[in-house]
Amino acid sequence: MPATPTRRKKRLGQLLARLRSDASKSLGDASALLRVSEPTISRYETGHVRPGWAALQALLALYNATDEERLEAGALWDDAGERATQVITPSGSPKAFRAFLRAEAEAHSARTLEPHVVPGLLQTHAYARAVNESGQQFHTAEPARYVTARLSRQARLAPPSPLRFHALIDEAVLHRAVGGPEVMAEQLHYLDDCAARENVTIQILPFSMGAYGTMSGGFTIIDYADPEDPPAVYLDYVAGGVWVENVNDVHHFAEMFSEIASSALRTDESVELIRERAKALG
User: Fold this and answer.
1) Which residue ranges does the record assign to the HTH cro/C1-type domain (predicted)?
2) Could you say which of 11, 145, 203, 277 would form a disulfide bridge with 174 (CB–CB 3.0 to 4.6 Å)?
3) What is the 3-state secondary structure (H, E, C) of 206-252?
4) Exposed, middle or buried, 234 (CB in 10 Å: 0-12/13-18/19+)?
5) CATH code, 7-80
6) How far is Cα 166 from Cα 261, in angstroms, rounded to an integer?
């Protein structure tokens, strides 16, 4: 499996690239010292590969790193070695979606607006399967692979470092019997259970609310614990997805999310509505 960059490894790589630049050293200088190729040094700096401890110390010496910089590099090296939650990705998944899964695995919190279906992190197996059996024209793998991948993401909601997740869900989602009444009833009961978690907030956008936001589709805002890692927005669509990282645009999405949340049902009202719909399905 090819190495993939993670946010933690990128932070270490950025520091190494800065130290090399400040020391006026070339990729060739670093590669000659370690007796590796220049592309390997480049992969260190782009966050694709975490250097070994001995290689890191040799580079820091070459770059004349200060004691403070050595401490910072050591802390980042330790952090980069921590295993993120493993997420299964179906073959053929768009590159942007794979990047979204990696970001979600490393995030501190996520805020999502979902006008059409239950958010993936809150779906049951049967509901996820019903969703993925639809629209097979755009799927390159069996529905079971997509279901497994989607459900593997739910580990992020569990200890020891659970993701803080805030979902705004259109009331229409509660009424669309995806998979039939039994599947939908099970899904609604599971939503009720999820809403009881301390790290999960669910708010329903009632029909009576009228228009909200731009009414142009859903989005997810990814936030990180480190203030040096700016939030980003992921927009999902049938043929792939796209990232929004412009600071002003992300700010607009965050403002829109807060505005919609302030007009949505309270969490207790949302749970009551979810239970009513589940009861209606029997």
Assistant:
1) 16-70
2) 277
3) CHHHCCCCCCCCCEEEEECCCCCCCCEEEEEECCEEEEECCHHHHHH
4) buried
5) 1.10.260.40
6) 9
Instruction: Give tens-digit pLDDT for 197-211.
Output: 999 999 999 999 999
Full-model pTM: 0.76
pLDDT of 4 reads 67
147 CB-near residues (< 8 Å, 6+ apart): 125, 128, 129, 132
Q: pLDDT tens digit string along 132-158?
A: 888 776 766 676 777 787 788 899 999
247 Cβ contact list (under 8 Å, min separation 6)? 230
Q: Is CATH 3.30.870 the classification given to domain 95-280?
A: yes
Rg of the chain over all Cα atoms, to the nearest angstrom: 22
152, 157, 160, 163 alpha-carbon torsion, rounded to 10°? 120
Domain residue ranges of the chain, discontinuous segments joined by +: 7-80, 95-280
Give the Cα separation of 116 and 278 in Å (integer). Answer: 18
Angle at 243 between CA 75 and CA 162, to 5 degrees: 50
Give the span between the Cα atoms of 67 and 62, in whole angstroms. 14
Q: Closest Cα partner for 32 from 8, 59, 9?
A: 59
